[in-house]
Each structure stands twice: as C-alpha cells, then as structure tokens.
Amino acid sequence: MPKVVDKKEKREKILEAAIPVFAKKGIVATKMVDIADAAEIGKGTIYEYFKSKDEIFIAAFYYVMKKAENIIARRMSSVDDPLEKLKFLFDAWKEIFSSEFRNHLEIMIDFWAEGIRNKDKKATFSLKKIYDENRKMIKDILDECVAKGKIYPVNTKIVASVILGALDGEMVQWITDPKLFTIEESFDVTAEIILTGLKKERAKNDIAQKKRRPT
Amino acid sequence: MPKVVDKKEKREKILEAAIPVFAKKGIVATKMVDIADAAEIGKGTIYEYFKSKDEIFIAAFYYVMKKAENIIARRMSSVDDPLEKLKFLFDAWKEIFSSEFRNHLEIMIDFWAEGIRNKDKKATFSLKKIYDENRKMIKDILDECVAKGKIYPVNTKIVASVILGALDGEMVQWITDPKLFTIEESFDVTAEIILTGLKKERAKNDIAQKKRRPT
DNA sequence: TATAATTGACCGAACTGTCAGTCATTAATA
DNA sequence: TATTAATGACTGACAGTTCGGTCAATTATA
C-alpha cells in the first residue's frame, strides 16, 4: 500500500504557515521558497497542494475572512436590541483586531490594493463584495434602530459606510503605529462619538435654540 | 549645441504621465514601457530623468501629496474659528477626493501596502509620517476647540484618529464602488455625525434641561 | 547663407538577475 | 516491491536597467 497523508490537513498547515509570511512581506515580496521554508517543506511540495502562488494567496484571504466572520457571528447571535447589536458589533471588531489576529491583518492591505484594481473583473475574490456585506450588516442594524425609534431617521446606507470606514481607517493607522493607541480605546471612542452623534440628530432644533440663548 | 530641454519640466511631464498608470495598474503591474508609452518617449529616456522605477514611484507619491497639502493650506488659511476650521478641513478633503484628483487616488493604496511594511525602516517615504502629520493637524484644531469651549474635553489624539480614519475608510469604499455614494454626501454625513457627537458631550446638561422642558 | 562640427537627448536591443513552476529523482510507507 | 509523497536543481519567461548608436538642434566658420 502506498504512503497516505491527509491532504486537507497538510494544505491547511501550508496555509497557516503562509499567512504570516504574506502579512510580513506582502504578496510580491513573498517567494514560494519563503512559504516552503515557513512550512518546513520543499518548494515543489507546495504544488502538490496548491496550483499556484495566487491560489495560496486567495485561500489565505478566505481563511482569515472566515475566522473573522465566525467571531462576528458568535458575538451577534444572542442579541436582540438593535442598539445593543451595534455595540456588540464594535466589540466583535475589537476582538478581531486584537491579539492572535494581529499578525494576520496586514494581509488585508494587499487585498485592498489588489481588490481596488480588480473591481471591474469578476475576480475570485472581491473587495467590493466584502465591503458590501459588512455595510449591509451595519445598515440592517441601523434600519432596525430607526424602525424601533432608537435613533433619528438617517440615510442608513451612508451612515453604515461611515461606521465601516471609521473602523477600517483606524485599523490601518493602528497597524501603522500600534504604540499610538490601543484598538480598544480607539473603537470605544468611535462607538461613543457615532452613537451619540446619531442620537443627537434628533435634537437638531435644540442646537438652533441654544445659539439664540448662549450659555 | 544640441537640443535644449527643461529637465525639470520634462521630469514632471513623465511623472504626470506615470501617476495614472500607477493608479490604474498598481506598482508591480506597471512596467517601465507602460510609463514610457504614456509619456510618449522611449524606455531608455526615463533613465535620463529618474534613477529607477522606485524613484518615479516615490516622486509620484510626493507629487500627489503636495497637491493635496496645497488644497488644504489654501482652504484653511483664512479661517479663525476652530469649529469652522474643522468644517473647512472636511471641505478641503471633499475637494481633494473629487473630480480631477480622482484618478490619482488609487496610487495611495500601494503606498499604504508598502508603507505598512516599511514602518520600521527609515524609508524615504513613510505612511506613518503622513498619518502623524494629518492627525496632528486635526488634533491641533480639536485642542483649540476644547480650549475655546467649543467641544467637550475629549482625548483629542484618539478623536483625531477617528476622524482621519473615517475619511480614509470612506475614501477606500468610494474608490471601490463610486456608484455607492458621492464623496460629498459621505463626508458631509461624517462631519455632521462627528461634530454633533463631539458637541453633544457638552450639551449633556442642555439635553437634560430639554427633558424637563420638551418642545 | 551654406555647410560642417558639435553636442546631448533619445532610443530600444541586449544584458542580467529573479522567480514561478516543472520534473526527474529519491524517500517513505504499507 | 509498488505506489505515493517529497524534493530541489533546473528552466524559461519576464522586466528593470544599461549602453552604444542615431539624430535633431544649435553654433562656428567660410
């Protein structure tokens, strides 16, 4: 009988070895030998499990995304109040962008760079799709908030993009300089400002009044 | 004597031809021939004006940055009130991220991807430095707002990073899918939410008052 | 003015280093 | 031993850079 290995398992092992290499060096600078070295196998062996460098890269992307989605799903499953949901979403993101995940994150930047240019072609992966999905998730929560009168009626699509953008943008700054602030405090402040801002909308007239009667 | 050309001017001409190519294809996919074709010169001629592909790329980066800085400086020069300043900053960004500039923006993504990995080395250009500068600009305005009692005392460094992040993140979404929203409405909503959120803190008492005397 | 001399901008063929991917060989296992 | 797994030297394509030749513009000279 021939030698038998668990193909699936070994594929995943290679993937997990590849992710930090991609994250550290970027797609282009990452050579197949680097991945082979990290996985402690020969270069040729990689091709027993992946068709190409590109395939590893895309697989790595989905691997990281899947993990993130699982965290969000777990956090959100047991919440009913939409405003709570929004807060729990922030918490989920805090978890995603912390500790263990930290070393996987830089990989996203390359997907952005790639995704932004591949937006027209129906690529295997699509940055647009990921933004769409996340924006929709936030929008749905916001819509529910509006429906239940928790926040003032706003353009929820735009506000969702603001929230998503803020988290996204802070993450990039944080990756660039982790000493600057903790992602926890950063996201907390974001949540506070935005939630306060949304609820405040309601009081627009009061601000006008306040101007007439300055303190 | 041979034909005389303005070296500076021609260098800039090449640069301006290179920027949209970089923006469209990304650093790696952009070949020297592409730049040469775009500038309508021979491949070899480029090397009369630039030492390397990398040098063009970095020069292109500074070229775009400089333009953006000029717009901001112009917009901000004639404003005194710090809250107005903040609004004008949003306006400046709206201008930067619109029309003529649109085609230069994708280039930033590659700088992010590169900058994020070069954060340790003292690179010729640095994403960290750019974030630092912009964050400082916002922070200074916020500090002034706080000092003059326009907004409630907050951690201005964090809030500055939130504002910067929000604009940054929205830009990326917009580049990914320009049909989704206009950058104008997106930034306007951001400004509204954030400014309201910040002022809200201070108006806490007023809201409490309001509850006592509802309109 | 006509023509020769001079210059350096311009060019692209050729050179060169770099990898992604292949494949002939070896190792491992049942 | 039969079969699969693993390997790393090899290769061919690709793209950044180089460099010797060409040519248009300018100046010097008769």
* Most extensive chain interface and residues per partner: A-B, 63 and 61 residues
N to C succession of SSEs of chain A? HHHHHHHHHH
Strand content of chain A: under 5%
Straight-line distance between termini of chain A? 88 Å
Structural class of chain A: mainly alpha
Low-confidence stretches of chain A: 200-215
Largest sheet of chain A: none
Mean pLDDT of chain A: 84
Instruction: Compute the number of helices of chain A.
Output: 10
Radius of gyration of chain A: 22 Å
The rough form of chain A would be described as: elongated
Proportion of residues in helical segments of chain A? over 70%
* Number of β-strand runs of chain A: 0
For this structure, the quaternary state is homodimer
Structure description:
The structure is a homodimer of 215-residue chains. Helix content of chain A is 73%, strand content 0%. In chain A, helix 4 packs antiparallel against helix 5 (82-96) and helix 7 packs across helix 8. The first copy, chain A, is mostly helical and 215 residues long. Chain A has helices spanning 7-25, 32-39, 43-49, 53-76, 82-96, 102-117, 127-147, 156-176, 183-200, 204-212. The first copy, chain A, has ten helices and no strands. The interface between A and B is large, with 63 and 61 residues. Chain B binds a DNA duplex (30 and 30 nucleotides) through helix 2 and helix 3.
What does the secondary structure layout of this molecule look like, with pairings?
2 copies of one chain form a homodimer.
Chain A: H1 7-25, H2 32-39, H3 43-49, H4 53-76, H5 82-96, H6 102-117, H7 127-147, H8 156-176, H9 183-200, H10 204-212
The structure holds a DNA duplex (30 and 30 nucleotides).
